[in-house]
Write a structure and sequence with these properties.
Layout: H1 2-34, H2 38-60, E1 62-67, E2 77-80, H3 85-92, E3 98-102, H4 103-106, H5 111-117, E4 121-123, H6 131-143, E5 148-150, H7 172-176, E6 180-190, H8 197-203, H9 211-219, E7 224-230, H10 242-256
Length: 278
């Protein structure tokens, strides 16, 4: 009986998701053709993403807790840990922001369209030769007054730890004259229980898990309590050592991150000891 109820819940939520997403795409296309100014279009896309992400997390049964939210007039480069599409919607529902994602995502059917209509900035993570040019795009977006979201782990994770940060793109904040705003995202409760291995693959989308599978698992959940905590801002200059800045940001987020419970105890070096050449 429980499996039937879970299945029905999943089907209903998926249908609601589809309706919300289709409405989002239709409205975004209208805005795309109605607005000639790229800046106005990007502002509208980010506002659309906030509104529709809020609808989706409500439909999902996700209660969002936000701690230390900055004033609406503050501008910054937001960096955060990343466990999948759920935390993207959590962040997007807080305030209009422009997300940085990969060209691989842009090339992914359906998800590429969603990210484009959401006003994302794309970077080519598979090539280091273009990274400085892509950083200029982020800098220009920040200078225009947009809040930009960067996931410095450069991938989504399985909730075990915060991976080492890629350094270069984080320096866009210094070149734009805005602070870095570290944020930590945690899952506090899932179906009334702690964030354990039992529920990990219902809220984390990582590795080779197909998007459809991750979406279905998330849709079958009764409830989720997620938390976004804004941490101490980091002010930097273009002359600062990017490695030091990245380590400080990583330490702030890692110290507040609550990993999935139930992992076997293993001897392994902490994430900050792993070498990241970028």
């Amino acid at each position: 009986m429980e499996n039937i109820v879970t299945g029905v819940r999943g089907v209903v939520k998926i249908l609601v998701f589809i309706v919300i997403i289709l409405t989002f795409l239709i409205w975004s296309f209208v805005c795309h053709f109605a607005l000639r100014s790229p800046e106005k279009r990007l502002k509208t896309f980010s506002a659309n993403a906030k509104f529709f992400s809020g609808l989706i997390i409500k439909a999902m049964g996700l209660k969002l807790l936000v701690k230390n939210k900055p004033a609406d007039n503050e501008k910054f480069l937001l960096i955060s840990n990343h466990m999948g599409f759920i935390d993207i919607m959590m962040l997007a529902s807080c305030t209009p922001m422009v997300f940085v994602t990969s060209n691989e995502m842009r090339e992914t059917p359906f998800l590429g369209l969603l990210t484009e209509m959401g006003g994302c900035i794309y970077v080519e993570r598979r090539s280091r030769t273009r990274i400085l040019e892509e950083m200029k795009t982020i800098v220009n977006t920040l200078k225009k007054g947009f809040r930009v979201v960067l996931y410095p782990e450069a991938t989504s994770t399985n909730g075990e730890k915060v991976l080492p940060f890629k350094k270069t793109l984080m320096m866009a904040a210094a070149h734009a004259g805005v602070p870095i705003q570290p944020v930590v995202i945690n899952f506090r409760k899932i179906n009334g229980e702690d964030f354990t291995l039992k529920w990990r693959d219902h809220v984390c989308w990582y590795g080779d898990i197909p998007f459809a599978t991750a979406m279905w698992r998330a849709a079958t959940l009764k409830s989720v309590i997620g938390e976004i905590e804004f941490l101490e801002q980091i002010h930097s200059t273009p002359e600062d050592d990017r490695g030091v800045i990245a380590e400080k940001a990583h330490a702030l987020i890692a110290s507040k991150f609550v990993p999935v419970k139930g992992l076997p105890v293993e001897d392994q070096p902490p994430a900050e000891m792993q070498v990241d050449p970028t």
